[in-house]
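Entry 14. Ran structure prediction on the chain below.
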Amino acid sequence: MLQPADLFNLAETEHAEIFEGCEFGWEALKRIKGYLEHHLQPGTHHRCLGRCFIDGPVCIGEGTVIEDGAMIKGPVIIGRDCQIRHNAYIRSDVIIGDRCVIGNSCELKHSLLFNDCQVPHFNYVGDSILGHHAHLGAGVKISNVKLVPGTVTVEWEGKLFDTGLRKFGALLGDNTDIGCNAVLNPGSIIGRNSVIYANTAWRGVLPANQLAKNKAPIEVIPRRETLLRKA
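Output, structure tokens:
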């Protein structure tokens, strides 16, 4: 459940080398910066709709469209046939696969996205890895820093693993779906084909093929007469 092969189809990224020798999926996060330093070959083959802003070493694949107002600060690799939509902010040490969507007002930093990921509406993704066909609903935030001092830990099968990372957001396995306005707390690991329902604050490991949801009841009460008169 914690190993890269448990979560990701490594054939769905051109950057599988990052995972070589990793016992745990989060170890790949420590390698993103060095990988970009050695493998990034700057070149922009995109089409820009309006005015976009690119700074530093950046590689953008053919067929990718970048919309007006997007900001990309290298080092960054963006694959082929992606959509980088209006006012997206991609800031340093980010690798994006082919056919991905980075939407309006989304922010990414120090993360790896496999092919066909969708981060389409008002999302924050920091220090995370998103597997093939992972999808974030509108407003999903991946929190990447603990509020208290110390490194991020992961608990699984009664054992506590210290990742050694001060910043670690989430590992989302292939085909995961995170509902609108959900929050994934630092060190979240979501197994393949699992779903987090909207407005859920998730912490910890969710095994593959599971569904997590809030069961908080909705209270319905009569309107008071005074409120009705004011209306």
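The chain has one domain: 4-230. Will compare against last week's run tomorrow.
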